[in-house]
Amino acid sequence: MTDKTTYNIAKKIKEYRLKNDFSQAELAGKVGIAPNTLARLERGEHRASSLTIEKLAKALITYFDFRFESLLAPAISSLVI
User: Are 43 and 66 a contacting pair, CB within 8 Å?
Assistant: First the structure.
């Protein structure tokens, strides 16, 4: 079971990955995580560390916007690996 913030972040990660035409393997490689970890993040089964969120944001910067940033701000302190 996932909490709402984790679920919303998961949806945004996948949305922005697809907008950038990255496969899970490509994005995972850019971020330095395993593809199966990214898959779990996108399903909301795994909580990303703040460092991973930062790396994802940098990799997806073309489509990173204030809505995603505002979603992360209140949640960032509760995110764990």
Answer: no
Q: How far is the C-alpha of 19 from the C-alpha of 78, rounded, in Å?
A: 27
Answering whether pTM is above 0.70, one says: yes
Please list the pLDDT of the chain residue by residue as tens digits (81 residues). Answer: 458 888 888 898 999 899 889 999 999 999 999 999 999 999 999 888 889 988 998 888 754 455 555 556 555 555 544
First to last CA, the chain: 16
Largest CA distance in the chain: 31
What's the rounded Cα separation, in Å, for the pair 32 and 68? 21
**55 close to 24: Cβ distance less than 8 angstroms:** no
CB-based contacts of 2, cutoff 8 Å, min separation 6 = 10, 44, 45
